[in-house]
């Protein structure tokens, strides 16, 4: 999942939507593969963007009437592990478009349940839902973040370790946090609404940097979010 290449490939915004929809897991419901891994101090991903209808007229499940832009659109793409992507493209008759689109919908429903995107009736309950995620992200940042002394040594492996933690823990936690916050906007104070929007932009920037590997300035984590729903 790198920067966009060609019209039939998804643009940067679509890539981020796809990552968010996958939450770091293959969208084939019978596959439990994590897409972002860390092994032997090396961070890598096995995520592949698969076309429901092929990117060209000779590919699996081709649909010639689609434009190149439609072939690279969010609705025509799923995120799969390398094995599942190979499988659906090698045996397209066994994996019709309706099945793959069904996977995407089922995956979204599972994530809603997993993320606990329920509406709470008070701020205390909402705080109890977000606090463990905030605490875990903070602990990871304090122990592995780019500010630590080891990060100054390019041979220490600290940068790769930090990247692995971002991909496998912080980014999924961020998306879960945002899902809870959006479901419970009715409990936010007026001053907290802007904090949530700043957090949304922060997520977007961090995903661009770590997933698309496109160099750009990233917005900082809004410190006010650590106190969300308190008081």
Question: Your description of this structure?
Answer:
This protein is mainly alpha-helical and 231 residues long. It folds into two domains: 12-114, no CATH class; 123-227. The chain has seven helices and four strands, in the order αβββαβααααα. Helix 1 (12-22) crosses helix 7, helix 5 (123-144) packs antiparallel against helix 6 and helix 6 (158-183) packs antiparallel against helix 7. The model is unreliable at 1-6 (pLDDT under 50).
- As a percent range, the share of strand residues is 5-15%
Average pLDDT for all residues: 86
Shape: globular
User: In angstroms, what separates the terminal alpha carbons?
Assistant: 41 Å
Q: Rounded to an integer, what's the Rg over CA atoms?
A: 19 Å
Tally of DSSP helical segments: 7
Task: Indicate the low-confidence ranges by residue numbers.
Answer: 1-6
- Major sheet strand order: 1-2
The ordered string of helix (H) and strand (E) elements is HEEEHEHHHHH
- Label the structural class: mainly alpha
Task: Sketch the major β-sheet.
Answer: 2 strands, antiparallel
Number of structural domains: 2
User: Helical percent range?
Assistant: 40-55%
Total number of beta strands: 4
